[in-house]
Design a protein that fits this description.
Mean pLDDT of chain A: 87
Structural class of chain B: mainly beta
Mean pLDDT of chain B: 91
Shape of chain B: globular
Helix content of chain A: under 10%
Oligomer: heterodimer
Shape of chain A: globular
Order of helices and strands of chain B: EEEEEEEEEE
Largest sheet of chain A: 6 strands, mixed
Chain lengths: 113, 114
């Protein structure tokens, strides 16, 4: 079956540095990917998304890269701030317009002041 | 405007009891989703409502789980005869439309079954 997983469960980054969070997916037919941020005690918050017909998308301080050849997704956060400390999940939608998301386990990002 | 709200924020119950969890979506959002998040894990899809269409119940783990939604408003997730493995955070999300429209999540209900 489909699965979405993360390479690293935890990541510590010095404040001001850039961080990269990685995600692997197994369903080559997946069409849509989302990164969510979840702070302690809160629900996930949408960060950025990307369709499978793209390989890069940029937001404010965040960039998502999609490598369909190796089924790999990454989230880059530039100039990290203490408020970036959270658990980050990638999520996969197998078919565009199919509403069910499959979430990965998550990576805990800690920003060191 | 107000976001997605859920109640209660915490629920402790005894094994075998029934529980009801409530979700108030963002006003005007036609789609509503329930997810379960076990400790240290990702989100597990449970059920999806879209307008007046029949809900997608394919993620419900057993017949002890059910959910209802009144029109395009409040939804209730019911777990009957709770088991310890039901302990988790139950998250609700809503989106304006279906498909890839951004899902906005509530803070969740932390359920602990003793």
């Amino acid at each position: 079956g489909e699965s979405v997983g993360l390479h690293l469960p935890t990541l510590s980054v010095q404040e001001g540095d850039n961080s990269i969070i990685n995600c692997a997916y197994s369903n080559s037919a997946s069409d849509y990917f989302i990164w969510y941020k979840q702070e302690s005690g809160k629900g996930p918050q949408f960060i950025i998304d990307i369709r499978s017909n793209m390989d890069k998308r940029q937001g404010q301080r965040v960039t998502v890269l999609l490598n369909k050849t190796v089924k790999h997704l990454s989230l880059q956060i530039a100039a990290t701030q203490p408020g970036d400390s959270a658990v980050y999940f990638c999520a996969e939608m197998p078919n565009f317009g199919n509403e069910k998301l499959t979430f990965g386990t998550g990576t805990r990002l800690t920003i060191i002041p | 405007g107000a976001g997605v709200s859920q109640s209660p924020s915490n629920k402790v119950t005894e094994k075998g009891k029934d529980v009801e969890l409530r979700c108030d979506p963002i006003s005007g959002h036609t789609a509503l989703y329930w997810y379960r998040q076990r400790l240290g894990q990702g989100l597990e899809f449970l059920i999806y409502f879209q307008g007046n269409s029949a809900p997608d119940k394919s993620g419900l783990p057993s017949d002890r789980f059910s959910a209802e939604r009144t029109g395009e408003s409040v939804s209730t997730l019911t777990i009957q005869r709770t088991q310890q493995e039901d302990s988790a955070v139950y998250l609700c999300a809503s989106s304006l439309l279906e498909g890839t429209d951004t899902q906005y999540f509530g803070p969740g209900t932390r359920l602990t079954v003793l």
